[in-house]
Amino acid sequence: MEIRLNGESRFIDQITKMSVAGLLEMEQVTSPEMVAVQLNGEIVDRGTYHNTMIVDRNEVDFLYFMAGG
């Protein structure tokens, strides 16, 4: 499966689809509660990360929350 992750082309071997939660785990996101996920331009509800599937040619962005001051 080939996706665009944060603007970069990524090939994920031997997989035809993966959940948003699975991608966060595979990418070793250490604080997933601090990340919003955008799939094909739409924000994914955090409660659906396990059920929302990413398939070939999808565009995924991880949006990290940062504090400033």
UniProtKB/TrEMBL annotation:
TM region(s), chain numbering: none
UniProt xrefs under Pfam families: ThiS
Domain of life the protein comes from: Bacteria
Record's protein name: Sulfur carrier protein
Organism: Candidatus Electrothrix marina
